[in-house]
Write a structure and sequence with these properties.
Among the domains are: about 90-135 and about 245-315, Ribulose 1,5 Bisphosphate Carboxylase/Oxygenase (2-Layer Sandwich); about 135-240, Ribosomal protein L1/L10, domain II (Rossmann fold). The protein is rod-shaped. α2 packs across α7. β6 and β7 (about 245-255) form a beta hairpin. It is an alpha+beta fold. The chain starts with a helix and ends in a 12-residue tail after the last strand. Helix content is about 25%, strand content about 15%. It contains 7 helices and 11 strands. This is Large ribosomal subunit protein uL1m. InterPro entries: Ribosomal_uL1-like (IPR023674), Ribosomal_uL1/biogenesis (IPR028364), Ribosomal_uL1_3-a/b-sand (IPR016095).
Length: about 325
């Protein structure tokens, strides 16, 4: 009995060791299932960037010169960069009103006198048919807006006492006949303009060399019988003349005048200049220049500014002049 019990115990002990060995092997080969609690992934919130207002970009200047020949001696027709050498490009053309505005602006920047005179320099096209040309002329025009403070001195040559009286009543500085010849030769008497009636014109021959361009002539409107009308023109008239065969340099206004008044005076002089050349012969002016006393210079029709001077050329929108650099 004791022997059977002992053997049975050995059998149970062996079975227990076998079971424990198999369980250990299986635990090493098969991974344990560990309970894991899962959570939903949190979406990352995008940070809102502050809205930046985009500034409008400056459009790059694009100049199409494909069908245009290159200007002689220049790099191109117009510069692309803001900084460039002036002599490599043709002058820039501006409107006349913008040219006058820029001239006024330069006056304020340079601290020059505001009432300084404004001049115009014209180069005339004097050519006619068959190698002929327009003769140099002197003209007097009545500007729509006066810039002179003093009235011109006008001397009237006439031997008629009634005409002399009418002349003095209409603002003549002096009126008389041949008795005024010797005082004029002796420089005792002088005037800005000399007008005469046709009857006395032959007797004034001794004054021809003395007065020169101021000597009365029909072509200048200083010879006639309508003395009051001539006095009205020459008392407040503005005289200009052609020098060096084809150039005119004359004052047209003062810089303190309104822009409209400067433009009106400029247009009046241009129309009068073009009236001395036949209309069927084309344009009467070549490059023109407008400038003030401090050498702020314009080519009449276009404008360019440098430290030495400001050039402008003023294109008349409806005038007959063709101004080109």
């Amino acid at each position: 009995m004791a022997t059977c019990t002992r053997n049975l115990w050995k059998v149970f002990a062996g079975c227990q060791r076998q079971l424990l060995r198999v369980e250990g092997l299986t635990s090493q080969t098969t991974p344990r299932k560990i309970p894991v609690r899962t959570f939903a992934a949190v979406k990352a919130q995008k940070k809102s960037k502050p809205k930046v207002t985009e500034e409008p970009k400056e459009q790059k200047k694009v100049i199409d010169d494909t069908d245009r020949h290159k200007p002689y001696g220049k790099t191109a027709w117009a510069p692309v960069d803001d900084v460039y050498i002036l002599r490599y490009y043709p002058r820039t053309i501006y409107d006349v009103s913008e040219a006058i505005d820029m001239l006024k602006t330069f006056q304020r920047l340079d601290f020059t006198p505001q009432e300084q005179p404004v001049y115009i320099d014209l180069q005339l096209n004097m050519k006619l048919q068959k190698k002929k040309k327009v003769d140099a002329f002197i003209s007097t025009v009545q500007l729509p807006h006066l810039f002179k403070t003093e009235m011109n001195r006008v001397l009237v040559f006439t031997e008629d006492a009634n005409q002399a009286k009418v002349a003095m009543e209409n603002g003549a500085a002096l009126a008389g006949g041949v008795e005024l010849i010797q005082p004029i030769l002796d420089e005792e008497i002088s005037a800005d303009f000399y007008i005469a009636v046709p009857e006395i014109l032959n007797k004034l021959a001794p004054l021809r060399n003395k007065l020169r361009k101021k000597f009365p002539k029909n072509s200048r409107g200083s010879v006639g019988i309508r003395i009051p009308k001539m006095l009205e023109l020459f008392k407040y008239g503005h005289e200009y003349f052609v020098e060096s065969d084809c150039y005119i340099r004359t004052q047209i206004a003062t810089l303190d005048m309104p822009k409209e008044h400067i433009f009106a005076n400029l247009r009046t002089i241009l129309l009068d200049v073009c009236s001395h050349r036949p209309a069927d012969m084309g344009t009467c002016t070549n490059p023109a220049a407008v400038h003030n006393l401090s050498i702020e210079l314009f080519w009449a029709g276009f404008l360019r500014r440098s430290r030495i001077g400001a050039w402008a050329c003023a294109l008349m929108p409806d005038g007959p002049a063709d101004w080109s650099p």
